[in-house]
């Protein structure tokens, strides 16, 4: 019975893990944590990158694209090679920290289908304040982001309708544009973008701006992964100061207003191809 359920579920959804050569060093710890905390993942796990790793790691399949291709073009090419109507979109630095509740995650996929959503985020990021999201009455701690709210479109962990995600990605280039500009795309009003009121996929965003976050390294060490051979570093003081100033600005200025201003003048945009400025 268990095998039958798994086969049926595989026909509904594929996990897409987006990476690139510049972040290939993250794939071994990502895979080690995946095998430890989600060994019964019921979906095919597909890596999307530029150059296939020598070791398949935890991935069932690897889809490669030309080196230097934009993040969105890589994603669209991968989506066109996936046959399932839904995908779970993840990034290579989303490191699991606890055992995934497979039954609960599967129910969230069912919620997305039932409610006709384009995306169901498994972490409330951005937070679900009244200005950003509306609670869905009668649902299990589910909210709907208001259309054209900053970061209502994001690469944060969650389920997507494959065709909807493909249409959004076709209109942008980098991951930066996908989130910043895609959030104000008219498509955000076409289908509900849903989000859970609490974090339900137990991961940390282990790398920011190319540097290790403290909790990313801590997740590896807690799982028994030796981090002494890691070549990526912690951020220097200058980067930490800039991020601190940005955090203060975001706390003082309404996020949607600020991101519209950033988009208008392309502030903070990245030209990095596949990595998208993670």
Query: What's the pLDDT, averaged over the residues?
Result: 89
Number of helices: 9
- Taking the alpha carbons of the first and last residues, their distance comes to 41 Å
**Would you give the CATH topology?**
Spore Coat Polysaccharide Biosynthesis Protein SpsA, Chain A
What is the multimeric organization of the chains shown?
single chain
Concise synopsis of the structure shown:
Helices cover 34% and strands 18% of the residues. The chain is built from nine helices and 13 strands.
Q: What does it look like?
A:
The structure is a single chain. The chain has 278 residues and is α/β, with parallel strands linked by helices. It has a single domain, classed as Alpha-Beta Complex (Spore Coat Polysaccharide Biosynthesis Protein SpsA, Chain A). 34% of the residues lie in helices and 18% in strands. The protein has helices spanning 2-10, 27-37, 71-79, 102-115, 162-170, 175-180, 214-222, 237-252, 255-265, and strands spanning 13-18, 44-49, 61-64, 86-91, 94-96, 119-121, 133-135, 142-145, 158-161, 193-196, 203-205, 207-208, 211-212. Helix 3 (71-79) packs antiparallel against helix 5. It is globular and about 45 Å long. The termini are far apart. Residues 1-8 have low confidence and may be disordered.
